[in-house]
Amino acid sequence: MKTLLYAIGPMLFDSLGVLVFAVLLAAGAGIVPAVVAGTVVAVAVIGYELVRGHRIAALQWISLASVLFTAAATLLTGDPRFVMAKPTIVYLIVGSVMLRRGWLNRYILPEQLALVGDVMDRFGMIWAGLMFVSAGLNLVVALFFTAWWPLFIGIFPLASKFGLFAVHIAVVHFIGQTRLRRRADGELQPLAAE
After folding, report:
1. Which of 134, 123, 109, 104 is nearest to 164 (CA)?
2. DSSP string of 95-158, one letter each residue
């Protein structure tokens, strides 16, 4: 439970702008108010982190840049297709960044990293795969099922991420506990030897 709470905080905080956008869009607030509110929240999250003196992760900068670009394009043209295409572009960029080893390290307690760091790296690749699948699905829904796009964007991205997140935490916890038991039984070498 401690690991879950440690990881879910940054995940929700990093996604706050997108969450606000999706909730407002699903609630029928309209594209422009949803874009403006999501943009304000995304900028506020980065500002809050900077004021606290925290390092801003690459994924946070990418998310903010994409929010600003698509928000400006949507507000200047009045064309909602910019907003509809944005998730595909963002998912492709984010998926590419997620291919880098160690990006998940900030979501795990430092003392657990030596025990399950290899598992976290494997899940980093699985997360990248989810982003690439999400990019393709978003594009298909935006182009061919446009009327369903607000429902899709309001449900699928969050549901798929929380689903994978739950599996990720459960698997990492199980493997970590198994390794600790094996280490206690003398089946595994100490952490330094791995």
Report:
1. 123
2. HHHTTSTTGGGGGS-HHHHHHHHHHHHHHHHHHHHHHHHHHHHHHHHHHH-GGGHHHHHHHHHH
Could you tell me which residues come within 8 angstroms of residue 69 by beta carbon, excluding any fewer than 6 positions away? Answer: 86
- CA separation for the pair 125, 120 (Å, rounded): 9
Q: What is the pLDDT of residues 83-114, one digit of tens each?
A: 677 778 878 888 888 898 988 888 888 888 88
Cβ neighbours of 45 (radius 10 Å): 19
pLDDT in tens, 135-174: 999 999 988 887 788 788 778 988 998 899 999 989 998 9
Q: What angle do CA 176, 97, 177 make, to 5 degrees?
A: 5
